[in-house]
Amino acid sequence: RNFVKKMDNKNSGDTDENKDDISNVMGFGSFGGGKKAKQFDFMAMFEQTRQTAMDRSQKVLEDRVKDTKIDDRPHSSGNTIKGPQPLKNKQTDSESEDDDDDDVIGPPIPGSMKTSAEQDEDEVIGPPIPTATAANDDDDEDEPEEEEEVPWNKIPSSHEIELRHGSKTVSALTLDPSGARLVTGGYDYDMKFWDFAGMDSSLRSFRNLRPCQSHPIRSLAYNASGEYILIVAGNSQAKVITRDGHDVMECPKGDQYMNDMAKTKGHIAMLNGGCWNPKNRHEFITCSNDGSVRIWDTTCDKKHKNIMKPRSKLGRKATPTACVYSTDGKLIATACQDGSIHVFENKKYIVGNPAMLTRGAHQEGSDVSGMAFSYDGTTLATRGGDDTVKLWDIRNFKKPINVAEGLTNYFPVTDVIFSPDDKMVITGVSVKKNEGKGKLVFMERNTLQVVREMTVSDSSVVRCLWHPKLNQIVCGCSDGVAKLYYDPDKSVRGAKLCVFKKKKREEGSDFISSTHIITPHALPMFRTDREKSTWKQDLKARMDPTKSKRPDLPVSGPGQGGRIAAKGGTLSQYIAQSIAKSVPDDRDKDPRAAILRHAEAAESDPYWITPAYKKDQPYATFQKEEEEEEENDGPLWKKPKLK
């Protein structure tokens, strides 16, 4: 506006037309400051776009006609192959003039979207193109129909390897999610790590730990990411370590003088089981003889995250013996010694009452040793101490679906698992010593009928594990052996990586210990012998009594080197001889008698004292001894005390 005012003052003599020109140049409709809106002709823009599309379509049509003329050439067989031809236009000129406004802009409409009348009008020259469905139909007719393989034929059991854990029962097994490492634990308090990629055919573990001192290990488990290992032992404090064995956390111990377990920060009695949440890599649960199931988090080791307290039929404390998460992590199932099964919902605040409850699921007083959810999350399998395996439907939890009996169980940690395809249930069978062979039993899921029994060893089969990625089965036995079964065709990695590796050559002791400078032309006084191996050095050191610390040989003769002869070979003999040959010491005699012994010589030949008193006291005067008092002078208590 200031600029316009200056221009107005400068050109005060200009006409109104000049003012209008100035305002138009500045973008104002008038000196009042109003703007003019920019105008667009939409119809002209649409017409221009339509004309451009028609030109492009015409050019594409001409290129197709040229390609058709090139392809119409005779071949060696004399036949002529015609390429695709442009579509014929049956409309007359008058119709085309009337339908100019209805021309299609852009590529032609696909055939699948055309009507039947339009498809009839399109004439295609050449043989019909075979469709993919027709080709597939021909292949199906030629190939024989493949029969579906039964589930028990998929069991990888053609080959096996034996991993020696110790001499006592292998009570815990776990494989990381990738299948690279196996961890075993037993009643000998030890954990052993097995790396399939690093092992050779000697099948030795690369690490051995004793994480819980003198407590047997009851359960081991990798979390969902494979970075942590949960250790549940016979004490009251579960432990979490890394995959390399370094400590991460240890659950705190509760106050054993508290009656309400919810008021304590941890368990106060022996642990029975534990497992990780499959959907949360930091969350896990443990169950204990104190009658509680607690939820923990690795990010907080001061107190449990939540607690569940199963109750018996009379409302008293029930002891949980096993616990497990569902596959989606929303449910927590636990079995108690009174035979009941409690299923709680995994919420932020868990109410004391379970979401599902079944009384008398197993025999009262027997320990339910194992529980497992199916991969689809609808079925729960339980392994009881009453020699049974039962399947439960989560949607109808009152009665079991099927029951399998006669499966002997002597251990409180015997497993039950589902196959990776969810079609079989697997568990181990216990036997007494020298009374049979331990077996791994495979049962059909729908009926729990035994479809296969696999003999494992002469001892009980306690733990079992079927890894879905490796397709390999691991069994823990009561004789301290873990056996791994695989199939070279059906299994991948795992035992196949180490079973064919040659053993590493053992390094012998015959090698040059240090560099030695050889000087063959040196003078004899400076020449040293060539040291070829430590074996020769050890031989020389053995001949040297000082380096080998050889004991002294027995002395023969009068004695040598400060050692006494054979007659006084020992210290006791030497002391006895020295005492026997010793002369009595004069100092042990009466001192008065020793002095009076020289009285005659002093009197006859005085030299020291007598000449000094010869003038003043020629005769020596001695004190006379007092006469002893008679014993009957008086009682003892009346006699004066000597000072």
UniProtKB/TrEMBL annotation:
Region of interest (Disordered), ranges: 1-34, 51-153, 541-568, 619-643
Segments annotated as WD repeats: 163-195, 264-297, 361-396
SMART domains (UniProt xref): WD40
Keyword Repeat: yes
Gene3D superfamilies: YVTN repeat-like/Quinoprotein amine dehydrogenase
Compositional bias annotation for Acidic residues: 94-104, 136-150
Name this polypeptide is given: WD repeat-containing protein 70
Native source species: Owenia fusiformis (Polychaete worm)
